[in-house]
Amino acid sequence: AGLPGGGWPEPPVQALAVPLLQQGSAPYGFLVSGLNRYRVLDQGYRGFIELTAGHIASGIGSARSYEAQQRRAEELAELDRAKTAFFSNISHEFRTPLTLIMGPVEELRGRFGDAEDPVRQELDVIHRNGLRLGKLVNTLLDFSRIEAGRMQARYEPVDLAEVTAELASVFRSAVEKAGLAFDVDCPDLDEPVYIDRGLWEKVVLNLLSNALKFTFDGAVGVRVRREDTHAVVTVTDTGIGVPEAEMPRLFERFHRIENARSRSNEGSGIGLALVQELVGLHGGTIGAESTEGEGTTFTIRLPFGTAHLPAESVAGEAGGSAASGTADPYVQEAMRWLPGSDSGVAADDTVAEAEVGAAVPSAGGAASARVLVADDNADMREYLTRILAGAGYEVTAVTDGVEALRSVRRDTPDLVVSDVMMPRLDGLELVARLRGDARTASVPVLLLSARAGQEASIEGLQAGADDYLVKPFAAAELLARVRANVELARLRSHHVRWRAALIDSLQEAFFVCDESGSVVEINTAFTDILGYGPENLPYLPVHPWWPDAVADPEAHRQVGHAFADLLERDQGSYTVPVLHSDGHRLWVAVTFNKAQDPDTGRQVTVGTFRDVTAEHYAVQRETALAALTTSLSRAVSLPEALSGALAELKTLWRAQSVVGAVFGRGDVPAFTSTDPGQRWEELPAERREALAGLRRQSPLTPVAGDTGAGVLLEHPDGPLALWIDLGVHRPFTSEDQLLLSLLAGHLAQGLVRAHQIDQQRETAIALQRAILGPASLPEGFAVRYEPATRPLEVGGDWYDTVALADGRIGIVVGDCVGRGLEAASVMGQLRSACRALLLMDPSPCRTLMALDRFAASVPGAMCTTVFCGVLDPGTGQLTYSSAGHPPGIVAHPDGTIRLLDEGRSLPLAVRPGRERPEAACALPARATLLLYTDGLVERRRRPLSDGIDQASEAVLEGRDVPVDTLATDVMARLAPAGGYDDDVALLLYRHPAPLDMSFPAESSQLAPVRKALRSWLAQCDLPPNTVQNILVAAGEACANAIEHGHRHAPGEAVRLRAEALVDNLRLTVADSGRWKTPQPELNAHRGRGVALMRAMMQQVTITPGPAGTTVDMQMRIA
To answer: Long-range contacts made by residues 602-606, C-beta under 8 angstroms, separation at least 24?
Structure first.
């Protein structure tokens, strides 16, 4: 009842409480809203109230965030004031002890100027580092004064060019000692510039110190010039430059560019920040331009006059000189970065090494221990070297981590003592590099650092260091740590050295591969065999002893597959080619097993291998000789023997090509190459000269070149020069030369034998031509002969066709027992006798009876089988008789087969004088006759009928191809996988035989041609309409050939050829003239012959050419 109602007469009776939410925490509070009693609390009403609560909560959050930021800003400002006060106070506190140190040291240096070198050197070290500490304290004090607004400056008018040049001259000796050019260009500005001398010294000296620190080659320059109302001072260098990403932070306090190459890693990172502040106090500006790798230019702009300066700080006249004592710490520090500094430590531009301790008396067991000291501070290097050498250690000192890593890999020490902060490679990264290299992973490392606290020690130990010592430290503590780490390292390495000694004693090469295949450990035998030592471990794949992928891809693939096998399998062995470090090839037999590292649990591969080069080459020689012998034995001619031998040599040496030149009586040598079609004239001139030059060498004495080798040997036709072209620079070793000499001698003998076989072959071919068959066959016939004995081309089988007086053709196919020359001799006698008998009496049965009596008197003729027939080519009538011969095969055009198995009797000379039966058959038009010897169809462990069926099927399927093509197809289809092992004679005839006639190009010849064509078409058994169409088309073609082709060249000939297949007839008319293009508009009744031919035949092709015109016409006749 007490809730306010606003303008409503009735107060609300309900309220809605909504939390004022804040993210991730409890609500700020609650918004309580009295609800209108006249409105339903629906979704819209509730949403309005929640939206209001959200805005209120957002406003509260923003206000609280602003308050928090204010508090944080005040806290940071207070912290900055506290830091400034601290630096101011602590810097002042540093000055008192520094004064008490530097004063007495100055007195002692003066008092003991003639003291011994060690005493004087120690006083110099104290003095130099006191100056360095004083410089750092003064810098911190300047910063604290600037930030506190208490910097006292006295600006006086000076000749800025003169003052700057004097300051620059202080640095000249340091710059020139560094091997840099120093260019100072400071002309008079004609107007003084108001500066505080002391502060300006710090500006110029800081910039020059920076330039020298980061410049290794080139020059440093200082220039002063006037630009309008400003004096401009530039300091340039050709140093390492500043990365573009680092430029925005260049003048930021305590910011240092990581991993930047410099002469020293010393420095606080506040020099450039101080320079910017000091230039600002002068009312000036400073900027920088830099290109990484090229250098940096700092540009200072100072206004003339005093309007920009506080009036109370401006002096009326100039004071003292420019170069005060402020410059000494800068110059001395810079000199310590350079080679040959006062430390007396020998150094070059990047490394200072000191070998000391050799003349120092040993202290206990330390004398044999070698310690490597790495520190970029020359005084600290000298100090550590002096302490350790005095304790009897052999010490090597270097200036940074890069040189330390190089020194450890070159000569492993017993201990590395390294500063943490060094240029190029710091101490922590040095430890990581040492631990990541199997060769140096066990070298103990003692880190020295100015960073105190547990975190710094933990960081060093986690990086892999064995011990961590914080500066400053006592000499006794350092020696105790060094001795402890050396002794512990010796204990740890005893087992390693013993294991290494055992492994090195192995006669076989030993190696260990990690999971990636990198070779991380080897023994002495490994180096002895391959020439690769432990100094370059690990050897990453692809290993350097792999054959080159370009020069020897096959060997590279072989090693690659073996290496993949090594990575995948648990154990195994293989033999592969490898390359020695000097480039010569070796063969190694490798055995490997997988093993597990007991400390890390990682799996490694442990393997051994031995040099089997001699064994490999012995096997290679035997294999090569066997391959060459096989190649020579398979050759059927002298050229084939030579080309096969060259191919074997190419394969053996994986050569690009192998060529041979026989220098006979002619001017151009007989040339043979493994590159098909290559000729002598196509060879490069230097290669031809090299082959010709081999004639002056002793036979069988190889001559090696940069990319191959050659040898001279005897050839039946003259000296033979061989050259093996390897294609790339690949050493032709002494083993290769020995093998080439051996193979060349064997090849020379093989070529002599091949030449003898060639002569026998020529005799055999002459015999074949005399006794095998006719030189030319009647139309329609095709024959093939395949002797079982190579290289002879004759044997016991034969075929023959005999032109008889009445126009018929005698057909004979025979098969004598045996093979080779003896069977050929018998065959020749029987063939000649059979031919004579047919000419005397063209009766197959009587011919075989007479031949039977003759065979009985010929040694070796018994059981000869003969098929003898007489064919009438006009009618297709065939009369035949068979003396034990396989049945002939007739393939009809309708796809049926008939075997000529009638008229059969015993083979010859089995029962001489007995009657022989005779049979007859009519070959239908477009039928194909196959006669053959048993070598075509007879196979071991297979019925003869299967072979006859296979031959029948082959003839049936070839009914629609020319008979000569069919003969080749049948021989190929029935040939066994290894070739025929018995003589084969084959004779094919297709009825009717093709019509092939030539006639003079005269119109009077058209009628006889039509008559001959009509007679031939009658034998083809074609319908009358088809015959008429063919005659019309042929007549037009012949008439055109006479009229157009030979109108102006009478007496030339026209050729007509007609051939009938099973379902296609082809007619060709060819002349040697050129047709005239018809012009129907001039002669409307002429020029229609071609159209008529196309109407009569189904396909007409006219092919004109320089040698004449050919009309090819085809028609389906099935």
So the answer is: 602/514, 602/515, 603/515, 604/512, 604/513, 604/514, 604/515, 604/520, 605/512, 605/513, 605/566, 605/567, 606/510, 606/511, 606/512
Six token digits for residue 297: 């230019």
Q: State the CATH class of domain 153-307+323-336.
A: alpha beta
Q: Please determine, looking at this structure, whether the domain spanning 14-150 carries the CATH number 1.10.287.130.
A: yes
**CATH of segment(s) 635-763:** 3.30.450.40
Give CB contacts under 8 A, 24+ apart, made by 309-315: 309/155, 309/194, 309/282, 309/283, 313/153, 313/154, 313/155, 314/155, 314/156, 314/194, 315/154, 315/155, 315/156, 315/157
Query: Which one-letter amino acid corresponds to residue 698?
Result: S
Q: Is 157 helix (H, G, I), strand (E, B) or coil?
A: strand
Domain with CATH 3.30.565.10 in the chain: 153-307+323-336, 995-1116
Higher pLDDT, 645 or 1106: 645
Identify the band that residue 492 occupies on the pLDDT scale cut at 50, 70 and 90: confident
What angle, rounded to 10 degrees, do the helices at 613-634 and 638-653 form? 160
Torsion from C-alpha of 209, 212, 215, 219, nearest 10 degrees: 120
Lowest mean pLDDT among 281-295, 492-506, 507-521, 914-928: 492-506
Look at 85 and 923; give whichever has higher pLDDT.
923
pLDDT class for 382, splitting at 50, 70, 90? confident
Residue 353's pLDDT is 38
More confident call, 468 vs 302: 302
Q: Tell me how far apart the alpha carbons of residues 969 and 973 are, in angstroms, rounded to a whole number.
A: 6
**Residue 870 pLDDT more than 70?**
yes
Q: Mean pLDDT for the chain? A: 85
User: What is the pLDDT confidence band of residue 726, given thresholds at 50, 70 and 90?
Assistant: confident
- The mean per-residue pLDDT over the stretch 905-909 comes to 95
Is-cis flag, bond preceding 192, omega within 30? no
Q: Taking the chain, what is the end-to-end CA distance rounded to the nearest angstrom?
A: 122
Indicate whether 886 pLDDT > 90: yes
The domain at 509-611 falls in which architecture? 2-Layer Sandwich (3.30)
- Does residue 343 register a pLDDT over 80? no
Tell me, letter by letter, the H, E, C secondary structure of 281-309: HCCCEEEEEEECCCEEEEEEEEECCCCCC
Of the options 1.10.1060.10, 3.40.50.1010, 3.40.50.720, 3.40.50.2300, the CATH number for the domain spanning 364-504: 3.40.50.2300
Q: What CATH number belongs to 995-1116?
A: 3.30.565.10
Query: In angstroms, how far apart are the furthest CA atoms of the chain?
Result: 159
Q: Are 371 and 388 in contact (CB under 8 A)?
A: yes
Q: Where do you find CATH 3.30.450.40 in the chain?
A: 635-763
Peptide bond into 1080 cis (omega under 30): no
**Using CA atoms, how far apart are residues 833 and 908, in angstroms rounded to an integer?**
13
CATH homologous superfamily of domain 774-991? PPM-type phosphatase domain (3.60.40.10)
Amino acid in position 23: Q
> Which tens digits make up the pLDDT trace of 555-611?
899 999 999 999 999 999 999 999 999 888 899 999 999 998 776 678 899 999 999
Please state the rounded mean pLDDT for residues 662-673. 87
DSSP state of 253: T
Give φ, ψ of 310 to 5 degrees. Answer: -60, 135
Q: Quick one: tokens of 325?
A: 């004592």
pLDDT-derived band at 765 (thresholds 50, 70, 90) equals low
- DSSP H helices in 930-1060: 944-957, 963-974, 1006-1019, 1024-1040
Name the β-bridge partners of 951. none
| 559, 737 contact by CB (below 8 A) | no
Does the structure show a pLDDT above 50 at 349? no
| 750 close to 732: Cβ distance less than 8 angstroms | no
